[in-house]
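Re: the request from the purification team.
They wanted to know what the chain is likely to look like in 3D before they choose a buffer screen. I agreed to run a prediction and write the result into the notebook, where they can find it.
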Amino acid sequence: MNPQKKFHLVFSLVMAAIMVFIVTFIITLVNVGWVEGFASLWLRAFSIAYVVAAPIIFFMAPIARKLTGKILGMPA
């Protein structure tokens, strides 16, 4: 695997972990509060969301970069 593709894959996995960690924690806290078993509820939400988010980020990041470039008037 060439370094650019490896970078994109690792970036997608790390970005998904960071984003999903924060969002699922907050949404779980808002939905159920700080209850007994919160950690297991949150980890379940995290696990499901991470499996969904990582491939979405992998495939959508290049599109988001191109769109951002167009919005800002930067060359491709």
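For the purification team: The chain has a mean pLDDT of 95.
Please add any questions underneath this entry.
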